[in-house]
Design brief:
Blueprint lengths: L12 E5 L5 E5 L12 E6 L6 H9 L5 H7 L15 E5 L16
Length: 108
Amino acid sequence: MFEPTSRYHSIATAAYTLPDGRTVTYVRRRFLPRPEELMTIGEHIVAPGDRLDRIAARRFGDPEQSWQLADANRAMRPEDLTAAVGRRLRITLPVGVPATTEPRGARG
């Protein structure tokens, strides 16, 4: 249902039948991972003008992967991650992705 790079890729779906007989499929609740259980592959120090989508593009090669930064840094409000210049952000692999000899985004 979702692309392999989506935060919802591995989340199960469920269905609900409406009174008129139509079925509505929905994604079950996604629980945030515990950051300490994610494999750290790097760090980013927030610079003036940084945005999560730009950091994700640089680190993961895809700006839509900014959700990984929020998961890795226990952010309930992702915009807070870039609010303070100098803040250190953990760069991690998503849940269930084992580390390799050269993590994604290791270069540059």
